[in-house]
TrEMBL record:
Uppermost EC category: oxidoreductase
Record-linked Pfam families: DAO
Keyword Transmembrane annotated: no
The protein's name in its UniProt record: NAD(P)/FAD-dependent oxidoreductase
Amino acid sequence: MSVVVVGGGPAGATAAWHLARAGREVRVLERETEPRDRICGEFLSVEAQAHLAEIGLDPASFGAPAIERLRLVHDAQVAEAPLPFRAYGLTRRAMDEALLVRVAAAGATVERGVMVREIGGRQLATDAGEVAAETLVLASGKHDVRGAKRVSRGTVTDLIGFKSYFRLAEDQRAALAGHIEVMLFDGGYAGLQLVDGGKANLCLLVEQRRFARVGSWPPLLAMLTDGCRHLAERLAGATELLERPLTISGIPYGYRYRPHRNDDDRFYRVGDQCAVIPSFAGDGMAMAMHGGRAAAQAILRGEGARAYHAARHAEFARQVTLAQALYRLGRPGLLQPALVAAVARWPGLATRLASWTRVPG
Ligand SMILES: Cc1cc2nc3c(=O)[nH]c(=O)nc-3n(C[C@H](O)[C@H](O)[C@H](O)COP(=O)(O)OP(=O)(O)OC[C@H]3O[C@@H](n4cnc5c(N)ncnc54)[C@H](O)[C@@H]3O)c2cc1C
């Protein structure tokens, strides 16, 4: 029985690869015509690496730098802790494209430049005409499709995400090497790390009300460097590489798809369409690939979507709930210095918390 996968990001590509490898007929509909930058911190956890390894991809072969330590920062205050694993900084432009190449090589049909506009049951309205799916895997990630939108009740949706690349001054690049730096500021947080190509990824989330006060990226960046001496130091003498940053709003952090009795049993949600963990956990891609793999396995053994969704809802509960609680704890500006002081005093605590937000391997 053939499967249609909507979206060729980490979740959709992983589902498609496993299905195609098992001999299933798979069509991947991906709206982008060519590789492009994505809004993402590009922190690749050990679990995400394991999924890539299964598909035959090694981050180090792309020149992705290793990351082994966390720095938690508030203004000039810095605490450091070892990560519980070796992570990598791998650009999504490189990773997503390599995944789609592997998916096609496994025998799936990858249709680029096909935007799914609306979903009704398993009937898709696309730019290229109507598609009827026998089995449907929805992997459109951060973007909802009309007719199949996620319910955001009970989630945190008031954040705007920004991502840009910088060429850092040589001494700052050397100081950042091997670290993911998470900088807390009143109304949000930013992550800075090196990725392949020798550049630094600056990805941040800021409350809408806080962004409204400045209105655009240059004053936002100025506000952040004014309020965070560590970030100002890192960006001194740096060149911004994107003409304008990538942005996104309205992500439903804390969302987990809850299955209903009347759900179509051949309509599977994977990746951010199934669950959304706060970005600072650096676990979104691992969860996406884990879910993509699990959906493929469910389809192959004839397990319906309701059982698949119930299993994911239970499986992701701890990670998503803990990451949400940590996010809420770190959100008020007044608590942030105390949080950094706690990590400076007990670095093992940060390492432990980082392990507890991981998805099972
Ligand atoms: C600011 C921010 C920082 C993050 N940092 C990290 C991090 O450092 N590490 C980490 O592991 N996770 C991180 N995440 C989470 C991670 O990016 C996501 O969890 C992950 O990308 C989800 O994968 P996905 O395949 O579900 O969706 P996506 O990566 O969003 O991919 C969806 C795909 O579907 C395509 N598509 C969308 N709509 C349609 C349509 N209508 N028709 C056809 N195709 C469509 C898109 O073009 C895309 O290729 C971050 C998220 C944000 C917002």
